[in-house]
């Protein structure tokens, strides 16, 4: 290590991280686990790290966020190192590609277009630029290119946005609500008369339309569901605390009792 001043430099920045990754992947002296990985085996870790970044932001844990962003950055470095080994591209190529894309998509900042536009107009301009980029890639269908690996709710919204851009969309939010009622009825009917596969299909249809409602309400469904999860955890912990005051655990209580305590927790939250 005495011959590795860059590795030991606490202020080595990106060159240090890239060199660490290169050393980890060295087939002769690197880490056996790192050497054994490929794009497919690392991809799940990349997705996991992205969610951990989102979790730190959700909890406003800014100290943790620095580390989580570092973990996510390391995933990009890992993929870029494997690509470089295959002669595909380097980390600098990744950075340059991103820089070129941002410059092209922000002519009002880096070009001669005016900045005198609303955020809504900028979103429309952004979508126009991306549509032109997709046309340049010879994508045929309006829905082509929406990543299969996205979380299902997020992918549903992206698919619906693409369809809406070519006119396939409900013009009024009441029609979306009506469709939710219709799909809920079909799910109820499937539950009573059909098999598990048909029930799952109808449930998927209902979720898809709920995602559409989120889009029409300008709500990010993944974020809304995360908030609902957090609220459920908090309130159920409150129920457990109230049961503990009574010398009980949830499994020693009835649904009726826990439901009443749940309402009490909600009252406590409103009064806090």
From TrEMBL:
PANTHER family: NUCLEOSIDE TRIPHOSPHATE PYROPHOSPHOHYDROLASE. NCBIfam families: mazG, PRK09562.1. One of its GO terms (molecular function) is ATP diphosphatase activity. Its EC number is 3.6.1.8. GO terms for biological process: dATP catabolic process; dGTP catabolic process; dTTP catabolic process; dUTP catabolic process; response to stress; TTP catabolic process; UTP catabolic process. The keyword Transcription regulation does not apply. This is Nucleoside triphosphate pyrophosphohydrolase. Keywords: Hydrolase. Belongs to the nucleoside triphosphate pyrophosphohydrolase family. InterPro entries: MazG-like_dom (IPR004518), NTP-PPase_MazG-like_C (IPR048011), NTP-PPase_MazG-like_N (IPR048015), NTP_PyrPHydrolase_MazG (IPR011551). It catalyses: ATP + H2O = AMP + diphosphate + H(+). Residues 37-110, 177-235 form the NTP pyrophosphohydrolase MazG-like domain.
């Amino acid at each position: 290590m005495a011959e590795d001043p860059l590795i030991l430099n606490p202020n080595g920045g990106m060159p240090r991280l890239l060199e660490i990754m290169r050393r980890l992947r060295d087939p002769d002296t690197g880490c056996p686990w790192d050497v054994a990985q490929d794009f497919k085996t690392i991809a799940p870790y990349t997705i996991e790290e992205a969610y951990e970044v989102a979790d730190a932001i959700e909890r406003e844990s800014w100290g943790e966020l620095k580390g989580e962003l570092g973990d996510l950055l390391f995933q990009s470095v890992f993929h870029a190192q494997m690509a470089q080994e295959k002669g595909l591209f380097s980390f600098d190529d990744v950075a340059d590609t991103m820089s070129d894309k941002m410059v092209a998509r922000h002519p009002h900042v880096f070009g001669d277009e005016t900045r005198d536009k609303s955020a809504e107009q900028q979103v429309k301009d952004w979508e126009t630029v991306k549509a032109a980029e997709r046309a340049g890639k010879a994508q045929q269908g309006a829905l082509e290119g929406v990543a299969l690996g996205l979380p299902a709710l997020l992918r549903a919204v992206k698919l619906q946005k693409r369809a809406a851009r070519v006119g396939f969309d409900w013009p009024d939010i009441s029609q979306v609500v009506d469709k939710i009622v219709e799909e809920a009825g079909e799910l109820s009917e499937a539950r009573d008369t059909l098999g598990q596969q048909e029930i799952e299909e109808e449930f998927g249809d209902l979720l898809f339309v709920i995602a559409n409602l989120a889009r029409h309400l300008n709500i990010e469904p993944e974020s809304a569901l995360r908030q609902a999860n957090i609220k459920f955890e908090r309130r159920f912990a409150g129920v457990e605390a109230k049961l503990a005051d009574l010398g009980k655990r949830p499994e020693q209580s009835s649904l009726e009792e826990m439901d009443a305590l749940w309402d009490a927790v909600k009252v406590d939250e409103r009064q806090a």
